[in-house]
Amino acid sequence: MAQIWNRFRAVILGVLGVAAVVVTWDLYKALGPEEGVLVGDTRVLPRTTDLAMPHSWEMLQRFGDPVTGLPGAPDAFDAVFDASMFSLGLAARGWVIGVVVGLVLALVMSRLRIVESALLPWVILSQTVPLIAIAPLVRRWGSEITIFGHVWSSEDSVAVIAAYLAFFPVAVGALRGLKSPDATHLDLMRAYGVGWWRSLVTLRLPSSVPYLLPALRLAAASAVIGAVVAEVSIGLKGGLGRMVIDYAVAASGDPAKPWAPIFGAVAIGLVSAGAIGLLGLVLRPFRLTGASNG
Amino acid sequence: MLRSLKLGAAAMVVAAFLTACGDDDDGGSESNVDVQQSEDCATRTQEARDAGELEEVSLQLQWVSQAQFAGYYAAVAECYYVDEGLDVNIVEGGVDIVPQDVLASGDVDYAISWVPKVLGSIEQGAGITNVAQIFERSATTQISFKDKDIAGPEDLKGKNVGSWGFGNEWELFAGMQSADVQLEDINLVQQAFDMNAFLAGDIDAAQAMTYNEYAQVLETVNPETGELYTPEDLNVINWNDVGTAMLQDAIWATTEKLSDPDYEERTVKFIKASIKGWAFVRDNPEEAADIVAASGSELGQSHQLWMANEVNKLIWPSTNGVGYIDEEAWAQTVDIALNTKNETGATIISKEPPSSAYTNEYVEQALAELEEEGEDTIGADYEPIEVTLQEGGK
């Protein structure tokens, strides 16, 4: 009973949180100065005009209207939904690739000290390369690749770029986790005379779970961002990134429209975080073994 | 019980999340454009393709699908390329896609790009050649509200002047230079994709393409009147009139491959069919706008038609036949590229471009063939249509 009440409360609080954002938005729009708030010459709070901040209900209403005046144009909601699913699919693909690569890297690094010293700086360095610099490169290199009859597409490029962002937290988090067991536990394993493989499965992997879960969630968020930004970069059609660019043209005449894909991006971010949360439920039995008495 | 349920649900969601990877490749979501052809043309294309009569050719656009490129879409949709034995694949651009780089690296056969942007690439070693100057006139303008009193470049002094940068600023700077306005005399403001900063008054004179941003302003409600803004509300500095216009959309080919007779022949065919496509846009702007919209452009209907009509004005009427590179206009573009300094003191190029940078050899052949077929490549009595913009361009 208490558990159900807790759930219920969580839902209520969640709804209240969203409502608070909406209310703040419209209150500021109603009461804030038209020119925004300036400190010196720097605007710290935005203008409250309809151009800069459309009413929340207008943005919601926009979802029900057709995207363009063309006959047969879909409602904005349908268009955003399709684009969101497309981007989510690419992000998921990137996430899977990133997680696999990150785990393999972490395993190798935890097994061999020398590999860790050699690889870890590169892993960290990889994240300092701006996404917009590698996106066109990935597309161009990819266009020369065919794997087992599968011709490399721009979608593959986007997935790889999403993976490029997603592997990092996994590699670092898993490495930390694999090295987390107590020395006493490791000594015990050694005393039993079990090999590396067994101690990995029975000790290191389970104890890495508490480190891995936040890393996976971070990777999911990175994969979504990576997918959307990569779509913008290389102009891939079908997803939210491209939609952001396409709708920007309407920013002045139809100011609520460019917000639609932004809400789509928020939604898929929540969905992917939620999916990782469920994954956490599956891995729950291991959560406790990892934390050593405390 | 509850726990196994939870586990089951979790497993299902994870599985669903993962299978999202499986069902890709539905074809329509590639960066290759799926141009909407009439049924008759689609069948003809398929038949010719099956019979192996078509040569595959790819064209890299400078930006995403929009009526700026309507002529190439029309040439696919109306089977003009197929008539020439070409199977043309249009590849969309993106924010970070540089068409001349894609072309120089050999990924595509032809590319659409602006001359000043390519001149810089050529100086850095890109071996590409302008084989047809499709847009004769420049579409770049600097617009301002009437009350700002900015009628010419000399009035920009002391004003907040917007520019997108990234190679879009040269006509503006050259125009200012011609009016003796130094860069220190203005406050240069980085402009975004939309016109909100202009409408809010942060920018006095904003950069605007006649076929896009200018329309964006005219699609916006003027809060003072409750009606859409009208051309009477705006002053427009047109760089064609000032005399600092630079050549824009041109068809570029790989210089090295132009020594191959097959590629040369293909180039003539490609230019020829493309010009026919642009003639179609001239005569049927509404239909052309619909073709582009059906091929995956997300622009609103009236905005798309406006763009098709404005692009027509950049091409028609043509002085020497569409695509012919006018030596004087080329020289003016090169001159500005050599002598105009931007805010960092840099110029686009430091020495004259090589003679391989442009050639009229192929476009002349194409124009001659078109003339033989009775196609009008001048459009002397071309008249633009009237386009009524809707709020938000819908």
TrEMBL record, chain A:
Q: Which organism is it from?
A: Nocardioides silvaticus
Q: Which InterPro entries match?
A: MetI-like (IPR000515), MetI-like_sf (IPR035906)
User: In its keyword annotation, does this UniProt entry include Transport?
Assistant: yes
Q: Where in the cell is it found?
A: Cell membrane
Q: What is this protein called?
A: ABC transporter permease
Q: Which N-terminal residues, if any, form the signal peptide?
A: none
Q: Which residues form the ABC transmembrane type-1 domain?
A: 84-280
**What superkingdom heads the lineage?**
Bacteria
- The transmembrane segments are 7-28, 85-107, 119-138, 158-178, 211-234, 262-283
From TrEMBL, chain B:
Which key words are in the record? Answer: Iron, Metal-binding, Pyridoxal phosphate, Signal, Thiamine biosynthesis, Transferase
Reaction equations catalysed: N(6)-(pyridoxal phosphate)-L-lysyl-[4-amino-5-hydroxymethyl-2-methylpyrimidine phosphate synthase] + L-histidyl-[4-amino-5-hydroxymethyl-2-methylpyrimidine phosphate synthase] + 2 Fe(3+) + 4 H2O = L-lysyl-[4-amino-5-hydroxymethyl-2-methylpyrimidine phosphate synthase] + (2S)-2-amino-5-hydroxy-4-oxopentanoyl-[4-amino-5-hydroxymethyl-2-methylpyrimidine phosphate synthase] + 4-amino-2-methyl-5-(phosphooxymethyl)pyrimidine + 3-oxopropanoate + 2 Fe(2+) + 2 H(+)
Query: Superkingdom of the source?
Result: Bacteria
**GO annotation (BP), single:** thiamine biosynthetic process
Keyword Secreted included in the entry's annotation = no
Signal sequence interval, chain numbering: 1-22
A Pfam family it matches:
NMT1
Where are the bilayer-spanning segments?
none
Q: Which Gene3D superfamilies match?
A: Periplasmic binding protein-like II
- Domain named SsuA/THI5-like is located at 67-288
Q: Cite the annotated pathway.
A: Cofactor biosynthesis; thiamine diphosphate biosynthesis
Molecular function (GO) terms listed?
Answer: metal ion binding; transferase activity
Protein family membership: Belongs to the NMT1/THI5 family.
Biological role: Responsible for the formation of the pyrimidine heterocycle in the thiamine biosynthesis pathway. Catalyzes the formation of hydroxymethylpyrimidine phosphate (HMP-P) from histidine and pyridoxal phosphate (PLP). The protein uses PLP and the active site histidine to form HMP-P, generating an inactive enzyme. The enzyme can only undergo a single turnover, which suggests it is a suicide enzyme.
Q: How does it assemble?
A: Homodimer.
- Protein name per Swiss-Prot or TrEMBL: Thiamine pyrimidine synthase
